[in-house]
Amino acid sequence: MTNSARQTVAILMPGDMGHGVGQALIASGHDAITALDGRSDHSRMLAGRAGLRDVGSLDAAVAEADLILSILPPDRALPLAQEVAGIARQHGHAPVFADCNAISPMTLGEVAACFDGTGVEVIDCGIIGLNPIKAPPTRFYVSGPDCTAFKAIASESMRVEVIGPELGQASALKMVYAALTKGTWTLQTAVLTAARQLDVLAPLLEEFAYSQKGPLADMRGRVPFLPADSERWVPEMEEIAATFAKAGVSPGFHQGAAEMFRVMARSSFASETRETLDRRRTLEAALEEYVRHLEPKG
User: Fold this and answer.
1) How far, in Å, CA of 54 to CA of 202, rounded?
2) Residues 189, 182: contact at Cβ < 8 Å?
3) Beta-carbon-side half-sphere exposure of residue 210 (alpha carbons within 13 Å)
4) How far is C-alpha 205 from the geometric centre of its chain's CA atoms?
5) Which residues of 92-127 are buried (b: 16+ CB within 10 A; e: fewer)?
6) How far is residue 77's CA from residue 100's CA, in Å, rounded to a whole number?
7) What pLDDT is attached to residue 295?
8) For residue 227, how many other CB atoms are within 10 A of its CB?
9) Which residues make Cβ contacts (< 8 Å) with residue 127, sequence separation at least 6?
10) Model pTM?
11) What value, to the nearest 5°, has the Cα angle with vertex 14 and ends 231 and 286?
12) How far apart (Å, rounded) are the C-alpha atoms in residues 139 and 130?
């Protein structure tokens, strides 16, 4: 075991990132639990693959946990925090709560406010990288008055970096990082989709093959497969837009990125998961499908 103190860590919820984090924690000697009541078959499959211990209800998970990791789509971050805070308040149990979601510093402030008067210590966390089983080490940037509980779960596959004492700092870092990565993917998709609509896709790809070989390879390897995650990335782009606006920077680009993800979420490819992606799909075939789901022209 990497750390001397074994913790019971609740993973809420075991999606692609969450189940990988749970598996890494188990490998480090921690007790990783989750609450699968009402969860999908896919979540159950991922939790089983990771070896997470299902305690059934959210109440049971909060009661057993020393540390709770909230890892789920950003539009679910605040509702989950409200539920956990209500349970902690009702039962008088105060685990550490780490919000690991792609949310703005403002939303993180709302999450932290849920726990006022509960005795629950809140840690702000921004995750960068793939899940720690796929591509270690995953980086967990954390901030807050006391990040001791999170530092205790660091391992070779989970690198923990404390970046400051203020809640919101880790969320801000995640926002500006994802603004580049996912923002770039949506810009590429928008450029190619517009080229397809303007009937200049073929010559554009020829020019990219000459002058933009690296970016073109990235586009062929990424753009056809974005729909599997596009629906849950819409609210992330909205959180980024709000973060930029708060910083006095135009939110327009990432509002547009959210719309590009909405287009892909309406496509027939959106029902895929990362495990079921059709890797034979070409860039050209993906664009043919995306243009079918553009909003009608006014």
Assistant:
1) 51
2) no
3) 5
4) 31
5) ebebbbbbbbbbbbebbeebbebbeebebbbbbbbb
6) 9
7) 85
8) 25
9) 17, 71, 100, 138, 139, 140, 141, 174
10) 0.94
11) 30
12) 9
Show the tokens assigned to 119: 């005795």
Q: Helix 201-211 crosses helix 213-222 at what angle (to 10 degrees)?
A: 130
Question: Within a 10 A sphere around the Cβ of 195, how many other Cβ atoms?
Answer: 17
Peptide bond into 13 cis (omega under 30): yes
The 3-state DSSP class for residue 69 equals: strand
Q: Quickly count: other Cβ atoms within 10 Å of residue 40's Cβ.
A: 11
The 10s digit of each residue's pLDDT in 26-45 is 999 999 999 999 999 989 99
CA angle (186, 69, 14) in 5-degree steps = 65
First to last CA, the chain: 61
Write the pLDDT tens digit of every residue in 71-83: 999 999 999 999 9
Question: What residue type is 35 in one-letter code?
Answer: A
Closest listed residue to residue 70, CA positions, set 155, 162, 146, 140: 140
Beta bridge partners of 213: none
Residue 96's closest CA among 127, 124, 116, 68? 68
Please choose, from the candidates 179, 188, 187, the residue with its C-alpha nearest in 3D space to the C-alpha of residue 241: 179
Q: Where are the alpha helices (DSSP H) in the chain?
A: 16-27, 41-50, 58-64, 77-91, 105-113, 148-151, 169-197, 201-211, 213-222, 227-246, 252-265, 283-290
Q: Which residues contact 111 (CB under 8 A, 6 or more apart)?
A: 77, 78, 81, 99, 103, 122
Give the phi and the psi of residue 12 in degrees, each rounded to 5.
-125, 90
Instruction: Report in angstroms the alpha-carbon separations of 186 from 66, 123, 239, 259, 290.
Output: 39, 30, 15, 9, 12
Q: What tokens does 85 get?
A: 């805070």
Provide the percentage of residues in the chain whose pLDDT is more than 70.
98
